[in-house]
Amino acid sequence: MVSIAEKLSDERFEGIVLLDGLDAACVGVTDSQDGDVLSAVYDIDKIIALLSRDMGFDDAWEWFNYNIAGLYTGDQSPVFIRTLDEITL
After folding, report:
1. Across the chain, where does the E strand assignment appear?
2. End-to-end CA distance of the chain, in Å?
3. How far is CA 65 from the centre of its chain?
4. What is the average per-residue pLDDT within 41-57?
5. pTM of the model
């Protein structure tokens, strides 16, 4: 299986910040309006599912909120989303 880092190895993606061990939660890439800044996009619910394998659901949410959601590594920090089918209205 090809890793996200390998898929994004092209020079267009230079500097993009990827999260270790969470390739399965990466759902794409987004760019700024001017197209100069690219960021990896991660599905929050997929991250929680991956983290829950090693810790309970509540601990996974706490870990995500404390250690991942507020992560800022510059302009190319990851973006976190929830898909519409994952949101209960």
Report:
1. 26-31, 38-43, 79-81
2. 36
3. 13
4. 95
5. 0.86
